[in-house]
Design a protein that fits this description.
This protein is α/β, with parallel strands linked by helices. The protein has 18 helices and 14 strands.
């Protein structure tokens, strides 16, 4: 059986990860981007994003992967995904300029029988507005997660497909590609699929909102949120996979975009979205948890304290700093003595001007307080005794519980984390 040839347009995070993962399923891939420098870097094995397994899969499947800056190479493709990342501003509003341009180039380059699939995140109504009588167009919901993107692309939970007419069977080449991933396929009208993605993210935001709200109550009452979570996960109405880890507000850009989209639609149609506005407000409040804690425990009595900040990425296993809790903290620290370190993200690329350390232990040398702002695996491997030896102070602010609280206490450190009273250490 001859497999269809698959194309991906846009070699940023979404398109690159999705295309490389598709090659692992045995398909030949045409990976296009109009940025000649980006394509040149990819051909030399230099990647614009960091994801576990990504480089290994490129090496393993190099004979199936073609990186090109020439859209005409899509002539040999049976299915082409438009998969550029859609940028958002500080208010979660999407900039559709790049995807509009890329979609026009794909339409101009592909054969009339090629299936074009919009994979990028778009607002409801976008795909139907791009229909053309001489092209075959679908929308597909992407559900990648930074730091686990390859895993999610290789083993999707389901495919949600937006169609002009969901009662009609999918084109053979497109169906073959989806079926190769051995998961449920849910066809629905364009607008339903576009809103399905937003609905999924709203459910996630609701779970995060519960965790953040109740974790803060734990901090004030002497309870420990980590003790409560197992009880919730055993409740079938909530489930063991629920997003119940407290955090520092919503980050990464995708969830913020969907909340902004819902607020805009509600305003346009005069429907109630007060709960969404509350989630946004709660997220903004949570982003300053570390700053409030740092000010209360350290800076209120020692404005000259040396502060070590470990982690700049918004989460582990990614290069992205979009709305990163670390950058939110650093925005308060101009004029203070600060040293930063991240395994992948440099201060320069993150747009911060603080002194950079060469390693995590070098960063904590002489620090009065250490803030672990990204739960990198590298930080989880640190011996808390090594941290304590190098520090001048005794306070370790660790919102994501990277360090074991018992080990921190044994090393003589005051360990401050989300969901536990700071007096409990």
């Amino acid at each position: 059986m001859t497999l269809p040839v698959i194309g991906f347009a846009g070699m940023t995070h979404l398109g690159l990860v999705s295309g490389v993962s598709a090659s692992e399923k045995g398909f030949r891939l045409v990976c296009y981007d109009p940025d000649t420098e980006r394509i040149s870097n990819l051909k030399r094995g230099k990647f614009p994003v960091s994801e576990p397994q990504l480089e290994e899969l490129v090496t393993k499947n190099k004979d199936r992967l073609t990186f090109t800056e020439n859209a005409a190479d899509f002539q040999g493709c049976d299915v082409v995904y438009v998969a550029t990342d859609v940028a958002t501003d500080d208010y979660g509003k999407s900039d559709l300029t790049i995807i509009n341009t890329l979609l026009d180039r794909v339409f101009a380059a592909v054969r009339a029988d090629t299936v074009v699939v919009v994979l990028s995140q778009v607002p409801p109504g976008f795909t139907r507005g791009k229909m053309r009588s001489d092209r075959i167009l679908y929308y597909q919901v992407e559900t990648l997660i930074f730091g686990r993107a390859v895993e999610r692309a290789l083993y999707p939970e389901r495919y949600i497909v937006g169609c002009k007419d969901p009662t009609q069977p999918l084109p053979r080449a497109y169906a073959m590609f989806l079926q190769a991933h051995d998961c449920p396929i849910l066809p629905m009208r364009y607008e339903s699929a576009e809103l399905a993605k937003i609905s999924i993210n709203m459910c996630l935001v609701a779970s995060v909102g519960v965790a953040n709200t109740m974790a803060e109550l734990c901090e004030q009452t002497g309870a420990d949120w980590s003790e409560i979570v197992p009880a919730l996960k055993l409740d079938r109405r909530i489930g063991k996979y629920s997003y119940l880890s407290p955090g520092l507000g919503i980050a990464g850009g995708n969830l913020e975009r969907d909340l902004a989209t819902v607020l805009a639609i509600a305003k346009r149609h005069t429907t109630d979205a007060g709960i969404v506005a509350a989630w946004v407000a709660n997220s903004r409040y949570r982003k300053d948890w570390t700053w409030r804690t740092l000010e209360k425990l350290v800076l209120s009595t020692n404005r000259d304290a040396k502060i070590a900040v470990l982690g700049l990425a918004y989460k582990e296993d990614t290069h992205s700093t979009k709305n990163s809790p670390s950058l939110v903290l650093l925005s308060h620290l101009d004029g203070y003595s600060v040293v930063v370190y991240d395994p992948i993200v440099s201060p320069q690329s993150a747009g911060v001007a603080f002194k950079a350390a060469s390693s995590s232990l070098a960063a904590v040398e002489g620090a009065d307080v250490v803030c672990i702002m990204t739960p990198w695996a590298e930080f989880k491997k640190l011996l808390v005794s090594d941290i304590a030896k190098r520090m001048s102070g005794r306070i370790l602010i660790d919102p994501f519980r990277v360090i074991d609280p018992a080990a921190a206490k044994l090393a003589g450190l005051q360990h401050v984390t989300l969901g536990v009273s700071s007096t409990a250490s």
